[in-house]
Amino acid sequence: MDASDLWDICSWVAGAGSLVFRRWWFLSPFSPPLSVCALAALILCCSLCVGCVGWCSWLVVLSELPSCGQAVHPLRSSQHTMQFASSHSGFIQDPPTLANQYANDAVLQAILRLYVPPEKLALVEPDLARFGGVVVSDQMLDWVQNAEDNPPTVSQFDAWGRRVDRLVTSEGWRAMRTVSAREGIIAAAYDERGRLAHNARVVQFAKYYLFSPSSALYTCPLAMTDGGARLVELSGDAHLMNHVFPRLTSRDPHTFWTSGQWMSERPGGSDVGPTETVACPPSSSSPSSSSPSSSSSSSLSSEEDDLWSIHGFKFFSSGTDSDATFLLARHGTRGKNGDVQVKPGSKGLSLFHATLRTPTGASNGVRIHRLKDKLGTKPVPTAELELVGMKARLVGKPYEGVRTIATILNVTRIHCAVSSVSFLRRALATARDYAHRRVAFGKPIAAHPLHARLLAEAETHLRANMELVFYVVHLLGITEVHERQSAGVLPPDPLQPLPPATSYATDLLRLLTPCTKTFAATDCVHQIGLCMEALGGQGYMEDAAGIPRLWRDAQVQAIWEGTGAVMAHDVARVIRDDRVGPRAWKAYGEMWEPPMRPVSPLRARC
Protein backbone atom coordinates (compact mmCIF):
# COMPACT_ATOMS: atom_id res chain seq x y z
CA MET A 1 0.00 0.00 0.00
CA ASP A 2 1.48 3.35 -1.10
CA ALA A 3 0.46 7.01 -0.82
CA SER A 4 -1.91 6.88 -3.83
CA ASP A 5 -3.90 4.06 -2.26
CA LEU A 6 -4.26 6.06 0.93
CA TRP A 7 -5.44 9.07 -1.06
CA ASP A 8 -8.11 7.01 -2.89
CA ILE A 9 -9.50 5.65 0.36
CA CYS A 10 -9.63 9.08 1.97
CA SER A 11 -11.31 10.61 -1.09
CA TRP A 12 -13.98 7.90 -1.14
CA VAL A 13 -14.81 8.35 2.54
CA ALA A 14 -14.87 12.15 2.23
CA GLY A 15 -17.12 11.98 -0.86
CA ALA A 16 -19.57 9.66 0.83
CA GLY A 17 -19.76 11.97 3.81
CA SER A 18 -20.38 15.01 1.64
CA LEU A 19 -23.19 13.25 -0.27
CA VAL A 20 -24.98 12.24 2.92
CA PHE A 21 -24.67 15.75 4.31
CA ARG A 22 -26.18 17.38 1.18
CA ARG A 23 -29.11 14.97 0.96
CA TRP A 24 -30.13 15.45 4.58
CA TRP A 25 -29.69 19.22 4.51
CA PHE A 26 -31.49 20.06 1.24
CA LEU A 27 -34.30 17.55 1.56
CA SER A 28 -35.29 18.87 4.99
CA PRO A 29 -34.33 22.57 5.18
CA PHE A 30 -37.00 23.34 7.77
CA SER A 31 -36.42 20.34 10.00
CA PRO A 32 -33.74 21.16 12.62
CA PRO A 33 -33.51 17.59 13.93
CA LEU A 34 -32.70 16.30 10.46
CA SER A 35 -30.07 19.03 9.96
CA VAL A 36 -28.40 18.03 13.17
CA CYS A 37 -28.37 14.42 12.04
CA ALA A 38 -26.77 15.41 8.75
CA LEU A 39 -24.03 17.32 10.59
CA ALA A 40 -23.41 14.34 12.85
CA ALA A 41 -23.13 12.09 9.82
CA LEU A 42 -20.50 14.40 8.31
CA ILE A 43 -18.46 14.40 11.53
CA LEU A 44 -18.65 10.61 11.64
CA CYS A 45 -17.41 10.28 8.07
CA CYS A 46 -14.51 12.67 8.75
CA SER A 47 -13.52 10.64 11.82
CA LEU A 48 -13.55 7.48 9.74
CA CYS A 49 -11.37 9.21 7.17
CA VAL A 50 -8.77 10.26 9.76
CA GLY A 51 -8.81 6.82 11.35
CA CYS A 52 -8.22 5.12 8.02
CA VAL A 53 -5.30 7.41 7.27
CA GLY A 54 -3.67 6.74 10.67
CA TRP A 55 -4.19 2.98 10.44
CA CYS A 56 -2.81 2.73 6.94
CA SER A 57 0.18 4.92 7.89
CA TRP A 58 1.10 2.53 10.70
CA LEU A 59 0.95 -0.38 8.24
CA VAL A 60 3.37 1.39 5.91
CA VAL A 61 5.80 2.30 8.74
CA LEU A 62 5.77 -1.18 10.25
CA SER A 63 6.37 -2.77 6.86
CA GLU A 64 9.52 -0.67 6.40
CA LEU A 65 11.07 -1.20 9.88
CA PRO A 66 14.28 -3.31 9.89
CA SER A 67 13.98 -6.86 11.11
CA CYS A 68 15.66 -8.04 14.32
CA GLY A 69 19.44 -8.13 14.07
CA GLN A 70 19.80 -5.35 11.50
CA ALA A 71 22.06 -2.51 12.67
CA VAL A 72 20.44 0.52 11.05
CA HIS A 73 21.18 3.83 12.73
CA PRO A 74 17.79 5.49 13.48
CA LEU A 75 18.82 8.81 11.96
CA ARG A 76 21.20 7.71 9.22
CA SER A 77 19.19 5.31 7.01
CA SER A 78 19.45 5.59 3.26
CA GLN A 79 15.91 7.00 3.02
CA HIS A 80 16.68 9.63 5.68
CA THR A 81 13.49 8.74 7.54
CA MET A 82 13.07 8.89 11.29
CA GLN A 83 12.78 5.42 12.79
CA PHE A 84 11.12 4.59 16.07
CA ALA A 85 13.31 3.24 18.88
CA SER A 86 12.28 1.37 21.99
CA SER A 87 13.94 -0.08 25.05
CA HIS A 88 14.85 -3.21 23.08
CA SER A 89 15.20 -1.92 19.52
CA GLY A 90 17.17 0.76 17.75
CA PHE A 91 20.85 1.47 18.33
CA ILE A 92 22.52 -0.34 21.25
CA GLN A 93 26.13 0.59 22.07
CA ASP A 94 28.60 -2.27 22.51
CA PRO A 95 30.18 -1.91 25.97
CA PRO A 96 33.97 -1.93 26.41
CA THR A 97 35.52 -5.30 27.16
CA LEU A 98 38.78 -6.25 28.83
CA ALA A 99 41.17 -8.66 27.17
CA ASN A 100 43.85 -10.70 28.95
CA GLN A 101 45.52 -8.09 31.15
CA TYR A 102 49.00 -9.51 30.69
CA ALA A 103 48.89 -10.36 27.00
CA ASN A 104 47.36 -6.96 26.26
CA ASP A 105 49.88 -4.96 28.31
CA ALA A 106 52.95 -4.16 26.23
CA VAL A 107 54.26 -1.82 28.93
CA LEU A 108 54.41 -4.49 31.62
CA GLN A 109 55.98 -7.01 29.26
CA ALA A 110 58.68 -4.54 28.26
CA ILE A 111 59.48 -3.77 31.89
CA LEU A 112 59.79 -7.46 32.72
CA ARG A 113 62.14 -7.95 29.77
CA LEU A 114 64.20 -5.02 31.03
CA TYR A 115 64.68 -6.31 34.57
CA VAL A 116 64.27 -10.10 34.44
CA PRO A 117 66.78 -12.23 32.49
CA PRO A 118 65.20 -14.24 29.64
CA GLU A 119 65.80 -17.63 31.23
CA LYS A 120 64.07 -16.53 34.45
CA LEU A 121 61.28 -14.73 32.64
CA ALA A 122 60.51 -17.95 30.78
CA LEU A 123 59.84 -19.61 34.14
CA VAL A 124 57.24 -17.10 35.32
CA GLU A 125 55.64 -15.71 32.15
CA PRO A 126 53.17 -18.60 31.63
CA ASP A 127 51.79 -18.04 35.13
CA LEU A 128 51.48 -14.29 34.54
CA ALA A 129 49.69 -14.89 31.24
CA ARG A 130 47.27 -17.29 32.93
CA PHE A 131 46.61 -14.87 35.77
CA GLY A 132 46.07 -12.04 33.29
CA GLY A 133 42.97 -13.87 32.15
CA VAL A 134 41.83 -14.79 35.65
CA VAL A 135 41.67 -11.18 36.87
CA VAL A 136 39.10 -10.22 34.20
CA SER A 137 37.09 -13.44 34.35
CA ASP A 138 33.38 -13.25 35.10
CA GLN A 139 33.94 -14.88 38.48
CA MET A 140 36.51 -12.32 39.61
CA LEU A 141 34.48 -9.36 38.41
CA ASP A 142 31.39 -10.76 40.13
CA TRP A 143 33.33 -10.99 43.39
CA VAL A 144 34.48 -7.39 43.00
CA GLN A 145 30.90 -6.23 42.46
CA ASN A 146 29.67 -8.33 45.38
CA ALA A 147 32.25 -6.76 47.69
CA GLU A 148 31.37 -3.28 46.43
CA ASP A 149 27.62 -3.82 46.87
CA ASN A 150 27.93 -5.37 50.35
CA PRO A 151 30.23 -3.24 52.53
CA PRO A 152 31.28 -4.63 55.91
CA THR A 153 29.05 -4.31 58.94
CA VAL A 154 29.58 -4.86 62.66
CA SER A 155 27.34 -6.47 65.27
CA GLN A 156 28.51 -5.22 68.64
CA PHE A 157 26.14 -7.23 70.86
CA ASP A 158 24.42 -10.58 70.66
CA ALA A 159 20.79 -11.29 71.56
CA TRP A 160 21.73 -11.60 75.26
CA GLY A 161 23.43 -8.24 75.48
CA ARG A 162 26.94 -9.63 75.48
CA ARG A 163 29.67 -7.68 73.67
CA VAL A 164 30.76 -9.68 70.63
CA ASP A 165 31.96 -7.10 68.04
CA ARG A 166 31.35 -9.48 65.17
CA LEU A 167 32.66 -8.06 61.89
CA VAL A 168 30.68 -9.25 58.86
CA THR A 169 32.31 -9.02 55.43
CA SER A 170 31.03 -9.90 51.97
CA GLU A 171 31.48 -13.14 50.08
CA GLY A 172 33.51 -11.30 47.45
CA TRP A 173 35.89 -9.89 50.06
CA ARG A 174 36.46 -13.32 51.62
CA ALA A 175 37.03 -14.83 48.18
CA MET A 176 39.85 -12.35 47.57
CA ARG A 177 41.65 -13.69 50.63
CA THR A 178 41.60 -17.18 49.13
CA VAL A 179 42.80 -15.94 45.75
CA SER A 180 45.60 -13.92 47.37
CA ALA A 181 46.94 -16.91 49.25
CA ARG A 182 46.70 -19.46 46.44
CA GLU A 183 48.26 -17.13 43.88
CA GLY A 184 51.10 -16.28 46.26
CA ILE A 185 50.64 -12.53 45.96
CA ILE A 186 52.76 -12.05 49.09
CA ALA A 187 54.56 -15.39 49.22
CA ALA A 188 56.21 -14.87 45.83
CA ALA A 189 58.46 -12.16 47.25
CA TYR A 190 59.94 -14.59 49.76
CA ASP A 191 59.72 -18.19 48.58
CA GLU A 192 60.81 -17.38 45.01
CA ARG A 193 64.17 -15.91 45.99
CA GLY A 194 65.81 -19.28 45.51
CA ARG A 195 65.23 -19.36 41.75
CA LEU A 196 64.64 -15.67 40.97
CA ALA A 197 67.09 -13.99 43.40
CA HIS A 198 66.61 -10.20 43.36
CA ASN A 199 64.11 -10.52 40.49
CA ALA A 200 61.56 -12.03 42.87
CA ARG A 201 60.23 -8.60 43.83
CA VAL A 202 59.70 -7.50 40.21
CA VAL A 203 57.81 -10.71 39.43
CA GLN A 204 55.78 -10.46 42.63
CA PHE A 205 54.71 -6.89 41.96
CA ALA A 206 53.95 -7.71 38.32
CA LYS A 207 51.38 -10.21 39.58
CA TYR A 208 50.21 -7.77 42.25
CA TYR A 209 49.81 -5.14 39.50
CA LEU A 210 47.52 -7.48 37.55
CA PHE A 211 45.52 -8.35 40.66
CA SER A 212 45.07 -4.92 42.24
CA PRO A 213 42.24 -3.47 40.05
CA SER A 214 40.28 -6.73 40.43
CA SER A 215 40.98 -7.27 44.13
CA ALA A 216 38.18 -5.16 45.69
CA LEU A 217 41.06 -3.37 47.45
CA TYR A 218 42.16 -6.53 49.23
CA THR A 219 45.60 -5.23 48.32
CA CYS A 220 45.24 -2.93 51.36
CA PRO A 221 45.69 -5.69 53.96
CA LEU A 222 48.12 -7.42 51.61
CA ALA A 223 50.36 -4.35 51.61
CA MET A 224 50.48 -4.31 55.40
CA THR A 225 51.02 -8.07 55.45
CA ASP A 226 54.00 -7.73 53.12
CA GLY A 227 55.43 -4.95 55.25
CA GLY A 228 54.91 -7.00 58.38
CA ALA A 229 56.62 -10.04 56.88
CA ARG A 230 59.60 -7.91 55.91
CA LEU A 231 59.78 -6.42 59.40
CA VAL A 232 59.69 -9.87 61.02
CA GLU A 233 62.43 -11.03 58.66
CA LEU A 234 64.65 -8.14 59.70
CA SER A 235 63.83 -8.31 63.40
CA GLY A 236 65.50 -11.64 64.03
CA ASP A 237 62.84 -12.40 66.66
CA ALA A 238 62.75 -16.19 66.98
CA HIS A 239 59.12 -16.32 68.12
CA LEU A 240 57.90 -14.15 65.23
CA MET A 241 59.99 -16.03 62.67
CA ASN A 242 58.72 -19.41 63.86
CA HIS A 243 55.06 -18.61 64.49
CA VAL A 244 54.14 -15.49 62.48
CA PHE A 245 56.34 -15.31 59.39
CA PRO A 246 55.23 -18.70 57.97
CA ARG A 247 51.61 -17.57 58.16
CA LEU A 248 52.18 -14.16 56.59
CA THR A 249 53.92 -15.80 53.62
CA SER A 250 51.76 -18.92 53.28
CA ARG A 251 50.06 -20.06 50.06
CA ASP A 252 47.49 -22.09 51.97
CA PRO A 253 44.26 -20.09 52.50
CA HIS A 254 43.63 -21.95 55.77
CA THR A 255 47.06 -21.03 57.13
CA PHE A 256 47.51 -17.59 55.58
CA TRP A 257 47.34 -14.55 57.86
CA THR A 258 46.89 -10.92 56.99
CA SER A 259 48.37 -8.25 59.23
CA GLY A 260 47.25 -4.78 60.21
CA GLN A 261 49.25 -1.68 61.06
CA TRP A 262 47.82 0.61 63.74
CA MET A 263 49.43 4.00 64.20
CA SER A 264 46.91 6.85 63.78
CA GLU A 265 45.10 8.17 66.85
CA ARG A 266 42.83 11.13 67.50
CA PRO A 267 45.59 13.58 68.55
CA GLY A 268 47.59 13.00 65.35
CA GLY A 269 47.89 10.98 62.17
CA SER A 270 51.38 11.18 60.69
CA ASP A 271 52.49 12.92 63.88
CA VAL A 272 52.68 9.97 66.26
CA GLY A 273 54.25 12.01 69.05
CA PRO A 274 50.93 12.61 70.89
CA THR A 275 50.05 8.88 70.93
CA GLU A 276 47.82 8.11 73.92
CA THR A 277 47.87 4.30 73.77
CA VAL A 278 49.90 2.82 76.62
CA ALA A 279 51.60 -0.56 76.89
CA CYS A 280 51.70 -1.77 80.48
CA PRO A 281 54.58 -4.05 81.52
CA PRO A 282 53.76 -7.76 81.86
CA SER A 283 53.65 -7.81 85.64
CA SER A 284 51.77 -4.50 86.06
CA SER A 285 48.09 -3.74 86.12
CA SER A 286 46.21 -1.46 83.76
CA PRO A 287 46.64 2.32 84.13
CA SER A 288 42.98 2.51 85.10
CA SER A 289 40.45 0.19 86.62
CA SER A 290 40.42 -3.44 85.65
CA SER A 291 39.01 -4.25 82.24
CA PRO A 292 35.89 -6.35 81.65
CA SER A 293 37.81 -8.12 78.92
CA SER A 294 40.47 -9.37 81.29
CA SER A 295 38.70 -12.68 81.67
CA SER A 296 38.92 -13.37 77.95
CA SER A 297 42.52 -12.23 77.80
CA SER A 298 43.46 -14.54 80.66
CA SER A 299 42.76 -17.52 78.44
CA LEU A 300 46.12 -17.08 76.76
CA SER A 301 48.54 -19.91 77.38
CA SER A 302 50.85 -19.73 80.37
CA GLU A 303 53.93 -19.64 78.17
CA GLU A 304 52.89 -16.14 77.09
CA ASP A 305 52.58 -14.66 80.57
CA ASP A 306 55.21 -12.06 79.65
CA LEU A 307 52.93 -10.34 77.13
CA TRP A 308 52.28 -6.63 77.52
CA SER A 309 48.82 -5.23 78.14
CA ILE A 310 47.74 -2.52 75.67
CA HIS A 311 45.17 0.16 76.55
CA GLY A 312 44.10 2.97 74.24
CA PHE A 313 42.11 4.05 71.21
CA LYS A 314 43.18 3.71 67.56
CA PHE A 315 41.34 6.07 65.23
CA PHE A 316 42.15 4.30 61.94
CA SER A 317 42.60 0.57 61.49
CA SER A 318 42.40 -0.59 57.88
CA GLY A 319 41.73 -4.25 57.21
CA THR A 320 40.17 -4.68 60.63
CA ASP A 321 39.40 -8.32 59.84
CA SER A 322 43.13 -9.11 59.80
CA ASP A 323 44.46 -11.92 61.96
CA ALA A 324 47.24 -9.93 63.61
CA THR A 325 48.64 -6.42 63.76
CA PHE A 326 51.68 -4.30 64.51
CA LEU A 327 50.95 -1.21 66.57
CA LEU A 328 52.68 1.69 68.27
CA ALA A 329 52.13 2.27 71.98
CA ARG A 330 53.75 4.31 74.69
CA HIS A 331 56.31 2.16 76.49
CA GLY A 332 55.25 1.97 80.13
CA THR A 333 57.49 1.26 83.11
CA ARG A 334 56.56 0.52 86.69
CA GLY A 335 57.14 3.17 89.29
CA LYS A 336 57.96 2.62 92.94
CA ASN A 337 54.29 2.68 93.82
CA GLY A 338 53.39 0.22 91.08
CA ASP A 339 51.95 2.89 88.82
CA VAL A 340 52.79 3.03 85.11
CA GLN A 341 55.12 5.79 83.95
CA VAL A 342 55.76 6.81 80.32
CA LYS A 343 58.01 9.11 78.31
CA PRO A 344 56.43 11.88 76.22
CA GLY A 345 56.82 12.35 72.47
CA SER A 346 57.72 9.92 69.73
CA LYS A 347 60.83 8.81 71.61
CA GLY A 348 58.62 7.16 74.20
CA LEU A 349 57.00 4.77 71.70
CA SER A 350 57.71 1.09 71.16
CA LEU A 351 56.40 -1.36 68.58
CA PHE A 352 54.24 -4.32 69.55
CA HIS A 353 52.72 -7.30 67.78
CA ALA A 354 49.39 -8.84 68.71
CA THR A 355 46.83 -11.26 67.37
CA LEU A 356 43.25 -10.01 67.22
CA ARG A 357 41.91 -13.15 68.85
CA THR A 358 43.11 -15.50 71.55
CA PRO A 359 43.81 -19.20 70.88
CA THR A 360 40.26 -19.94 72.05
CA GLY A 361 38.77 -17.58 69.46
CA ALA A 362 37.79 -14.84 71.92
CA SER A 363 38.53 -11.20 71.21
CA ASN A 364 41.98 -10.17 72.41
CA GLY A 365 40.75 -7.04 74.15
CA VAL A 366 39.66 -5.36 70.89
CA ARG A 367 36.39 -3.43 70.78
CA ILE A 368 35.09 -2.06 67.48
CA HIS A 369 33.79 1.43 68.23
CA ARG A 370 32.47 2.04 64.70
CA LEU A 371 33.24 1.46 61.02
CA LYS A 372 34.36 4.38 58.85
CA ASP A 373 32.19 5.73 56.03
CA LYS A 374 34.67 6.50 53.23
CA LEU A 375 34.66 8.01 49.75
CA GLY A 376 36.10 4.83 48.26
CA THR A 377 37.60 1.50 49.33
CA LYS A 378 34.07 0.51 50.36
CA PRO A 379 34.79 -3.24 50.73
CA VAL A 380 37.71 -2.62 53.12
CA PRO A 381 36.69 -2.70 56.79
CA THR A 382 38.21 0.41 58.40
CA ALA A 383 37.34 0.96 62.05
CA GLU A 384 37.91 2.93 65.19
CA LEU A 385 39.12 0.52 67.86
CA GLU A 386 39.21 0.61 71.63
CA LEU A 387 41.97 -1.55 73.09
CA VAL A 388 41.19 -2.83 76.56
CA GLY A 389 43.93 -5.06 77.90
CA MET A 390 45.06 -6.30 74.50
CA LYS A 391 47.89 -8.80 74.96
CA ALA A 392 50.89 -8.01 72.76
CA ARG A 393 54.56 -8.84 72.32
CA LEU A 394 57.34 -6.25 72.19
CA VAL A 395 59.06 -6.08 68.78
CA GLY A 396 62.55 -4.64 68.52
CA LYS A 397 64.23 -2.42 71.07
CA PRO A 398 62.28 -0.36 73.60
CA TYR A 399 61.57 3.25 72.62
CA GLU A 400 62.50 2.59 68.97
CA GLY A 401 59.00 1.92 67.72
CA VAL A 402 58.98 4.65 65.07
CA ARG A 403 62.28 3.52 63.59
CA THR A 404 61.22 -0.13 63.64
CA ILE A 405 57.83 0.36 62.02
CA ALA A 406 59.45 2.42 59.24
CA THR A 407 60.24 -0.91 57.55
CA ILE A 408 56.52 -1.52 57.10
CA LEU A 409 55.96 2.01 55.83
CA ASN A 410 58.63 1.74 53.14
CA VAL A 411 57.06 -1.45 51.77
CA THR A 412 53.46 -0.24 51.94
CA ARG A 413 54.37 2.99 50.14
CA ILE A 414 55.69 0.96 47.23
CA HIS A 415 52.42 -0.97 47.27
CA CYS A 416 50.56 2.35 47.04
CA ALA A 417 52.56 3.32 43.95
CA VAL A 418 52.04 -0.02 42.21
CA SER A 419 48.30 0.03 42.95
CA SER A 420 48.07 3.54 41.51
CA VAL A 421 49.61 2.62 38.17
CA SER A 422 47.54 -0.57 38.04
CA PHE A 423 44.33 1.44 38.42
CA LEU A 424 45.41 3.80 35.64
CA ARG A 425 46.29 0.89 33.38
CA ARG A 426 42.84 -0.69 33.89
CA ALA A 427 41.03 2.62 33.29
CA LEU A 428 43.10 3.29 30.16
CA ALA A 429 42.48 -0.21 28.81
CA THR A 430 38.75 0.39 29.20
CA ALA A 431 38.87 3.82 27.55
CA ARG A 432 41.02 2.57 24.69
CA ASP A 433 38.72 -0.34 23.89
CA TYR A 434 35.68 1.92 24.02
CA ALA A 435 37.32 4.41 21.65
CA HIS A 436 37.32 1.76 18.91
CA ARG A 437 33.69 0.79 19.54
CA ARG A 438 32.03 4.17 19.88
CA VAL A 439 31.21 5.98 16.61
CA ALA A 440 30.69 9.74 16.51
CA PHE A 441 30.30 11.93 13.43
CA GLY A 442 30.74 8.99 11.12
CA LYS A 443 33.93 7.44 12.52
CA PRO A 444 35.24 5.81 15.72
CA ILE A 445 36.14 8.36 18.36
CA ALA A 446 39.67 6.92 18.39
CA ALA A 447 40.06 8.50 14.93
CA HIS A 448 39.26 12.00 16.21
CA PRO A 449 42.56 13.84 16.86
CA LEU A 450 41.58 15.43 20.18
CA HIS A 451 40.32 12.15 21.60
CA ALA A 452 43.42 10.33 20.39
CA ARG A 453 45.53 13.01 22.06
CA LEU A 454 43.73 12.47 25.38
CA LEU A 455 44.43 8.73 25.25
CA ALA A 456 48.03 9.33 24.18
CA GLU A 457 48.58 11.67 27.11
CA ALA A 458 47.27 9.09 29.57
CA GLU A 459 49.43 6.41 27.93
CA THR A 460 52.53 8.59 28.24
CA HIS A 461 51.90 9.21 31.92
CA LEU A 462 51.29 5.51 32.49
CA ARG A 463 54.59 4.53 30.88
CA ALA A 464 56.55 7.15 32.78
CA ASN A 465 55.07 6.14 36.12
CA MET A 466 55.55 2.45 35.35
CA GLU A 467 59.26 2.95 34.69
CA LEU A 468 59.74 4.86 37.93
CA VAL A 469 57.64 2.52 40.06
CA PHE A 470 59.22 -0.72 38.85
CA TYR A 471 62.70 0.75 39.11
CA VAL A 472 62.01 1.28 42.81
CA VAL A 473 60.58 -2.24 43.03
CA HIS A 474 63.79 -3.54 41.50
CA LEU A 475 65.85 -1.62 44.05
CA LEU A 476 63.79 -3.22 46.81
CA GLY A 477 64.65 -6.67 45.48
CA ILE A 478 68.34 -5.78 45.26
CA THR A 479 68.51 -4.55 48.85
CA GLU A 480 66.66 -7.57 50.25
CA VAL A 481 68.87 -10.10 48.51
CA HIS A 482 72.02 -8.17 49.36
CA GLU A 483 71.22 -8.38 53.04
CA ARG A 484 71.15 -12.17 52.74
CA GLN A 485 74.46 -12.46 50.95
CA SER A 486 77.89 -12.44 52.45
CA ALA A 487 79.38 -10.30 49.68
CA GLY A 488 79.07 -6.55 49.97
CA VAL A 489 78.74 -5.85 46.23
CA LEU A 490 76.70 -7.62 43.54
CA PRO A 491 78.23 -7.89 40.07
CA PRO A 492 76.83 -5.10 37.89
CA ASP A 493 74.54 -6.11 35.03
CA PRO A 494 74.84 -3.84 31.97
CA LEU A 495 71.22 -4.56 31.06
CA GLN A 496 69.93 -3.34 34.39
CA PRO A 497 70.11 0.34 35.45
CA LEU A 498 71.61 -0.11 38.90
CA PRO A 499 74.26 1.74 40.82
CA PRO A 500 77.52 -0.24 40.95
CA ALA A 501 77.58 -0.50 44.74
CA THR A 502 74.64 -2.42 46.12
CA SER A 503 75.05 -0.67 49.47
CA TYR A 504 74.14 2.54 47.65
CA ALA A 505 70.95 0.92 46.38
CA THR A 506 69.61 0.90 49.94
CA ASP A 507 70.11 4.63 50.28
CA LEU A 508 68.73 5.31 46.81
CA LEU A 509 65.65 3.27 47.69
CA ARG A 510 65.21 5.35 50.83
CA LEU A 511 65.30 8.53 48.72
CA LEU A 512 63.09 7.41 45.84
CA THR A 513 60.34 5.59 47.74
CA PRO A 514 58.51 8.67 49.08
CA CYS A 515 59.03 10.48 45.76
CA THR A 516 57.60 7.59 43.77
CA LYS A 517 54.65 7.12 46.08
CA THR A 518 53.66 10.77 45.81
CA PHE A 519 54.20 11.25 42.08
CA ALA A 520 52.47 8.03 41.05
CA ALA A 521 49.51 8.40 43.41
CA THR A 522 48.69 12.02 42.59
CA ASP A 523 49.31 11.80 38.84
CA CYS A 524 47.33 8.61 38.34
CA VAL A 525 44.25 10.06 40.03
CA HIS A 526 44.20 12.86 37.44
CA GLN A 527 44.80 10.52 34.52
CA ILE A 528 42.06 8.14 35.65
CA GLY A 529 39.74 11.13 35.63
CA LEU A 530 40.66 11.76 32.00
CA CYS A 531 39.91 8.12 31.18
CA MET A 532 36.51 8.57 32.80
CA GLU A 533 35.96 11.63 30.62
CA ALA A 534 36.93 9.60 27.55
CA LEU A 535 33.76 7.52 27.97
CA GLY A 536 31.54 10.57 28.19
CA GLY A 537 28.43 10.22 30.30
CA GLN A 538 28.79 6.44 30.48
CA GLY A 539 32.18 6.86 32.10
CA TYR A 540 30.47 8.62 34.99
CA MET A 541 28.01 5.78 35.55
CA GLU A 542 28.74 3.39 38.41
CA ASP A 543 27.44 0.33 36.56
CA ALA A 544 28.86 1.04 33.10
CA ALA A 545 32.61 0.46 32.99
CA GLY A 546 33.96 0.50 36.55
CA ILE A 547 36.07 3.65 36.16
CA PRO A 548 34.27 5.62 38.93
CA ARG A 549 35.23 2.87 41.38
CA LEU A 550 38.85 2.98 40.25
CA TRP A 551 38.89 6.77 40.57
CA ARG A 552 37.45 6.73 44.10
CA ASP A 553 39.75 3.96 45.25
CA ALA A 554 42.80 5.66 43.73
CA GLN A 555 42.21 8.75 45.87
CA VAL A 556 43.31 6.93 49.01
CA GLN A 557 46.76 6.13 47.62
CA ALA A 558 47.76 9.80 47.83
CA ILE A 559 46.64 9.99 51.47
CA TRP A 560 47.37 6.60 53.02
CA GLU A 561 50.89 6.17 54.40
CA GLY A 562 51.55 9.89 54.11
CA THR A 563 50.28 12.81 52.07
CA GLY A 564 52.45 14.69 49.59
CA ALA A 565 53.61 17.14 52.26
CA VAL A 566 54.53 14.30 54.62
CA MET A 567 56.50 12.61 51.83
CA ALA A 568 58.31 15.88 51.08
CA HIS A 569 59.42 16.12 54.71
CA ASP A 570 60.59 12.51 54.53
CA VAL A 571 62.72 13.29 51.47
CA ALA A 572 64.16 16.31 53.28
CA ARG A 573 65.15 14.10 56.21
CA VAL A 574 67.00 11.76 53.87
CA ILE A 575 68.87 14.61 52.21
CA ARG A 576 69.84 16.20 55.54
CA ASP A 577 71.08 12.89 56.95
CA ASP A 578 74.88 13.13 57.09
CA ARG A 579 75.26 9.40 56.52
CA VAL A 580 72.48 8.49 54.08
CA GLY A 581 72.16 11.76 52.15
CA PRO A 582 75.55 11.85 50.36
CA ARG A 583 75.36 8.17 49.39
CA ALA A 584 71.81 8.52 48.11
CA TRP A 585 72.75 11.49 45.90
CA LYS A 586 75.83 9.66 44.63
CA ALA A 587 73.73 6.64 43.66
CA TYR A 588 71.15 8.92 42.05
CA GLY A 589 73.83 10.54 39.92
CA GLU A 590 75.25 7.19 38.84
CA MET A 591 71.82 6.20 37.55
CA TRP A 592 72.29 8.56 34.61
CA GLU A 593 75.94 7.87 33.81
CA PRO A 594 76.55 5.52 30.84
CA PRO A 595 76.78 2.60 30.58
CA MET A 596 74.75 2.12 33.75
CA ARG A 597 71.62 3.73 32.26
CA PRO A 598 70.98 2.24 28.81
CA VAL A 599 67.90 3.11 26.80
CA SER A 600 65.26 0.58 27.72
CA PRO A 601 63.18 -1.23 25.08
CA LEU A 602 60.14 0.43 26.61
CA ARG A 603 61.49 3.94 26.10
CA ALA A 604 62.77 3.12 22.64
CA ARG A 605 59.26 2.19 21.48
CA CYS A 606 57.84 5.44 22.84
From TrEMBL:
Domain Adaptive response protein AidB N-terminal, chain residue ranges per copy: 99-251
Keywords tagged on the record: FAD, Flavoprotein
Region feature Disordered, mapped onto this chain: 259-301
Gene Ontology MF annotations: acyl-CoA dehydrogenase activity
Biased composition (Low complexity): 281-301
Coiled-coil ranges (or none): none
Record-linked Gene3D superfamilies: 2.40.110.20, 6.10.250.600, Butyryl-CoA Dehydrogenase, subunit A, domain 3 (1.20.140.10)
Domain Acyl-CoA dehydrogenase/oxidase C-terminal: 400-476, 513-575
InterPro entries (alphabetical): Acyl-CoA_dehydrogenase-like, AcylCo_DH-like_C, AcylCo_DH/oxidase_C, AcylCoA_DH/oxidase_NM_dom_sf, AidB_N
Protein family per UniProt: Belongs to the acyl-CoA dehydrogenase family.
Protein name: Acyl-CoA dehydrogenase/oxidase C-terminal
